[in-house]
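U., I forgot to send this yesterday:
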Amino acid sequence: MNLLITGANGQLGSELRLLAPRYSAHTFHFTDVAELDITDEAAVRAFVKANAIDVLINCAAYTAVDKAEANEALCQRLNAEAPALLARAMDEAGGAIIHVSTDYVFDGTAHVPYTEDAPTCPNSVYGRTKLAGEEGVRAACKRSVIVRTAWLYSTFGNNFVKTMLRLGRERDELGVIFDQIGTPTYARDLAAALLAIVERGLVPGTYHFTNEGVTSWYDFTREIHRLAGIKTCRVRPLHTAEYPTPAARPHYSVLDKTKIKQTFALDIPWWQESLAECVAALEA
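Result:
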């Protein structure tokens, strides 16, 4: 098959690029804004047609959650309008799209893991535009897969793990929020899951994927420092109210992964095991 990966220079796109050589039966086309403007419908259609794209994996998004509050128009273009446009192009070509979404489509007031059919209620510009993107993709392409994820990190780009490693070595003390609960996701594990969906037969629908387990940002940080051998920085738990941000975060955004595991026979690693892999790679 011919696969198009948009947003290829981001965390997830970079991990897909690393895994691609293992899937030599497929031809991969990796694009970012320099190679393909995903807001230009004519350019997208032309690329899909010229390269006979069978499956498009959309990793492109506006992900600066706080900046999004002041940049709603740009966020709307990249997170809502562009995915629908990509989905239309794939539907017209008789192909499929896998679109990556977020836990921010939920308001975080639940106390049990969110299933795919749980009511959505985003409370940020980022969350609202990502939900609009999901809706646009579903409406535009019959063979569409939405994969919601959360707390993404990797060896690429800027992310929480890299920031906590840096701050842990720069500071004697660090305050980290303890009352927001979720699950970290190693982008390499998500990339492998997306390719498994392609390999094992794409089944349209909405799915959830994170690593296994549950933690808080505070406990996540403590584990990052433990794995890296950082002992000189005291990590102090903070309430959300003590660290105000422009965008509201879900207090609880654990995602139920039963559906994706059963549909595609996935064995998902525990978050601490995957974090250990990533920290070891970053510290090497």
